[in-house]
């Protein structure tokens, strides 16, 4: 049966010399046979593997596919070890190799770079520790800056993934991962490798230290992130820290300009419930804010607020003031007309 399989693949590969999937399936047959023979057919499997690596020299993704196939079966450890050893030697300066090595460590396949041996450890705590150490070892390598930044991002994403998993139920892992998170995010920031707003927000929401300090770091790095500014402003207002909130709001609208509407909405809602006098001042500022995307929304809202709190006479005066702001806002007129119609019907 095996010889028949080999013959089919040999024939197929004559006509499809560069068909990777066919080579992979041919290799997979040998891996399965290797397990059935308890390792006796290792020379054949090794020869096939070596030929494949030579044929697709420098193809890291193909190397990963062969590893993924070999790692499925437990009785082919020597073959697995050879594949991992070659991967580490050939692709030491690739961030993808370090990510792959970290992932197999996380799954319990521990590769010792000193002895170049591979063993399986079912203790997931050991897997997590080796996974983290692998990323940290990779970041010490002399990778090009762009590649190192990518590795930082792989590392950060993997930390988040681990912290979301069931493994965090164990207190020792929870403590270890909390310390790892603080250290890794801080170092990634210091190395100018933290470029995603969601990473800063995750860090801020999960830190035991100083949440606004982290968010401020985030808005310094990613100035145009609406999400970061929203999170910073919302944090201050949730603790009724109005002075700091207004400071964050002013910095945010200066930076975001025409994209700052979410910040206006948050502060308007907050002041409406707590500081009505300050709200009028905010409406005034928003009406004169030099971006139509903002003042077109604020002016009619200001009018609606005024008619409820100050009455129609005061609102008529306000309408004249708001009407003269350029560019002209049609919604302002329709809002005022609806108020006047209501007055006439009373």
Helix-strand layout with pairing:
Layout: H1 2-15, H2 20-36, H3 42-55, H4 60-70, H5 77-90, H6 95-106, E1 109-112, E2 117-120, H7 124-140, H8 145-164, H9 171-190, H10 197-206, H11 211-221, H12 226-238, H13 242-256, H14 261-274, H15 276-287, H16 292-309, H17 311-323, H18 330-345
Antiparallel strand pairs: 1-2
InterPro entries: Utp6 (IPR013949)
GO cellular component, one term: Pwp2p-containing subcomplex of 90S preribosome
GO molecular function: snoRNA binding
Largest sheet: 2 strands, antiparallel
- The side-by-side strand order for the widest beta sheet comes to 1-2
Rg, alpha carbons: 31 Å
Oligomer description: single chain
Question: What general outline do the C-alpha atoms trace?
Answer: elongated
Distance between the termini: 95 Å
String of helices and strands: HHHHHHEEHHHHHHHHHHHH
Number of helices: 18
Name the beta content range: under 5%
Structural class: mainly alpha
Number of strands: 2
Mean of pLDDT: 91
Extract low-pLDDT stretches.
Answer: none
GO cellular component, one term: Pwp2p-containing subcomplex of 90S preribosome
GO molecular function, one term: snoRNA binding
GO biological process, one term: maturation of SSU-rRNA from tricistronic rRNA transcript (SSU-rRNA, 5.8S rRNA, LSU-rRNA)
InterPro entries: Utp6
Description:
The protein has 346 residues and is mainly α. Among the domains are: 1-91; 210-274; 278-346. It has 18 helices and 2 strands. The chain has helices at 2-15, 20-36, 42-55, 60-70, 77-90, 95-106, 124-140, 145-164, 171-190, 197-206, 211-221, 226-238, 242-256, 261-274, 276-287, 292-309, 311-323, 330-345, and strands spanning 109-112, 117-120. A two-stranded antiparallel ribbon has the order 1-2. α6 packs parallel to α8 (145-164), α10 (197-206) packs antiparallel against α11 (211-221) and α12 (226-238) runs parallel beside α14. The longest helix is centred in the middle third of the chain and has 20 residues, at 145-164.
């Amino acid at each position: 049966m095996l010889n028949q399989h080999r013959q089919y693949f040999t024939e197929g590969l004559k006509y499809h010399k560069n068909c990777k999937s066919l080579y992979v399936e041919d290799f997979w047959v040998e891996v399965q046979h290797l397990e059935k023979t308890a390792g006796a057919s290792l020379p054949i499997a090794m020869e096939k593997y070596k030929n494949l690596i030579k044929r697709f020299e420098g193809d890291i993704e193909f190397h990963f596919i062969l590893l993924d196939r070999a790692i499925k079966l437990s009785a082919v450890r020597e073959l697995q070890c050879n594949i991992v050893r070659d991967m580490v030697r050939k692709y030491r300066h690739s961030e993808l190799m370090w990510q792959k090595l970290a992932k197999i460590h996380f799954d319990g396949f521990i590769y010792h770079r000193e002895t170049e041996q591979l063993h399986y450890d079912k203790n997931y705590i050991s897997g997590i520790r080796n996974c983290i150490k692998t990323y940290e070892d990779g970041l010490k390598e002399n990778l090009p800056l762009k590649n190192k930044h990518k590795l930082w991002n792989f590392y950060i994403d993997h930390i988040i993934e681990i912290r979301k998993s069931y493994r965090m139920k164990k207190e020792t892992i929870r403590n270890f991962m909390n310390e790892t998170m603080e250290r890794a995010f801080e170092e990634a920031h210091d190395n100018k490798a933290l470029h995603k707003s969601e990473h800063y927000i995750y860090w801020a929401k999960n830190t035991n230290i100083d949440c606004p300090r982290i968010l401020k770091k985030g808005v310094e790095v990613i100035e145009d992130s609406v999400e970061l500014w929203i999170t910073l402003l919302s944090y201050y207002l949730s603790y009724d820290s109005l002075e700091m909130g207004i400071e964050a709001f002013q910095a945010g609208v200066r930076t975001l300009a025409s994209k700052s509407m979410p910040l206006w909405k948050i502060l308007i809602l907050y002041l409406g419930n707590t500081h009505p006098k300050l709200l009028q001042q905010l409406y005034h500022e928003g009406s004169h804010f030099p971006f139509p995307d903002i003042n077109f929304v604020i002016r009619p809202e200001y009018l609606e607020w005024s008619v409820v709190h100050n009455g129609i006479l005061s609102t008529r005066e306000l309408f004249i003031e708001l009407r003269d702001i350029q560019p002209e806002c049609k919604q302002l007129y329709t809002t005022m007309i609806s108020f006047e119609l209501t007055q006439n019907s009373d």
